[in-house]
Structures are given as structure tokens and as C-alpha cells.
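Minimal example, chain plus fe (ii) ion.
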Amino acid sequence: MNRPDSAAGETAVSPGKISDFRGNGLDASLARRKELEQRHADTKVFGGGKTFFHPENSLLSASLIRNALRMTGMLERGRRNAMDIGIRENPVTLARLPNSFDGFTVLHISDLHLDSRPDFALRLAEVVAPLEYDLCVLTGDYRFHTHGDPRPALRGLSILRQVLSGTTYAVLGNHDSSDMIPDMIAMGYHLLYNTAVPVERPGATVYIVGVDDPHFFQTDDLEMALNSVPEGQLRVLLAHSPEIYQLAEAADVDLLLCGHTHGGQIALPGGRALYANARCPGRIISGNWQYGSLRGYTSVGAGSSVLDVRFNCRPEVTLHRLCSPC
Ligand SMILES: [Fe+2]
């Protein structure tokens, strides 16, 4: 399988090139995110962001859920479920996909929350290591908490990077700190912070576009991200949350890959989410969906937030196989 290590274009943030990142016109939106982080906005439980209630910012939420599960004898089962990461295959037909990209496979990992427990990163690496794909994308939430020391999550990212083949593009989620960016770049992750990169195959180019968190920090700038993308070219957008779906459709995006919702993480039998923490229609909080001309896929995530438990919502990594129309 072709692993396009050379896929990163000039606008990508390449390993060891943090100076390029700071100097390429992205300072304003990064400064805004840093300002919010420094004001500890990420500890705010009510208000801010696209939803009013932010359970992930509260340590009390975890304590209440943990105690309820312990009292009902379900805590350990939920923790086992959270380690049972599945591999989901998703063929997706895109009208504008050039023939030379037919079969191009994208490994999509979202909501990793790598420091949710000490052995989680190793478990995820074990699941990912044997997979075959052309490109890997990460759609944010590397850290378990929304604030605090990012180093345990960075250690997890380092473990994961060792088993990822070829180019990996990443965007930040609402649990991440912009302070993680230099370390991620040094590890070989290509950060897409409101920017786009071309991916080339003989005679054809498609674009991978990445924006910052549209959910809590709302420092996404799709217009800036698309600046370098020519009209009419296929564009795959990486965003942490599906809440950008209307803007993406208006911007002629072909495919939106995202996460954030965890598919509810704790769901009723049959998979109905109790709470998805996103302002968007229920039909787009997990799996495949379509909005107008936009195709979308919302990953239920590989990891867990607030508490490392899952019920009726199996964690996943996803292999998207892009198909040209017949
Ligand atoms: Fe998450």
C-alpha cells in the first residue's frame, strides 16, 4: 500500500518547523486560543462554547457518575468496555474523488484521551499497529481532562506515533492545550491549525483541511483554512466537532471527519445517546451522515471522557475507504 509520506504540502506544519507555524499568518487565532486557556476558560462548567453545560470541565461530574456506577456494581464492566476498541470500516463514495484516489484509505482516530488510565495508550497502539492505510488523521482530544498537566497525554501520543505509518495530520480538540503543539510537531504529527495541505497522486490532487476546535474555544477559521484550496478540488475537512457542519457544507467541503460527541459514551441499549454535548441534529452525532452535498462521519471516539467507562457505545478507530462513483 502506498504510504504518501510526501503528502505534506508547503502549508503543513512539519516536524521541527514550529517557527514556520508561528510565522504563517495563523498567529491571531492561536493567540485567541492561548488567551482563553490562560484565563482558565477551560474550567468553566456553564456558559461559553456552543453548549451551555460542559460536564467535561467538571471533576464533580466524574465523581458523581463513578459513585453511581460503583453502587450499582457496573463500574468495572464500564471500564472493561472502554478498553474494547473496535475497528470500523467505512466505505464512502465521493462524487468529486479523482479515479487515482479510488480506494485511498484514511485511518481516523478521534477523542483519544490518552491519559484516561495508565495502560490506555498501549492498548490503542496495539489495536492500530497492524492496520493498513494511506493516511492517518486525528481529530482531537488527546488529553483526558480539559486542563492540567498535558505531559501524560503527550507520552501517550509518543507511544501512538511509534506505530503509525506515514503522514499523520492532526487538529486540536477542546480537551487539548495549545502548549502541546511544539511537542506534537517534534514527534512527527502534522498540525493543521486553520490550514490545508495538498495530497497528490499521479495527475490528481485532493486537499486535507484542518480547523481548530469549533465546540468550546470556537477558534476555528474555515475561511482562512481554505485560502490555498483551488475551487472545484475535493476537500476533506478535519474538525473536532460536527458542529461545523453548516459552514462546511456552505464552503463546498466534500467530506467532514470529526468526533467530540463520543456517540454519548454512555448510551441506552440499542445505542441511543443520553447526552452528546454538541449543538447539532441527533442524526449527526455518530457514524455516517449527509447534510445537503456534505458527507460526514462522526467518530464515537477511541477513548473516554469525564470517566473511563462506556456502555452500549463501543470505542472505535475508523478506516474510511474513499471510492469514486462508478
Ligand atoms: Fe472527547
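Residues 111, 113, 141, 173, 175, 260, 262, 301, 305 surround fe (ii) ion (CB under 6 Å). Residues 5-39+50-323 form a domain with the Purple Acid Phosphatase; chain A, domain 2 fold (CATH 3.60.21).
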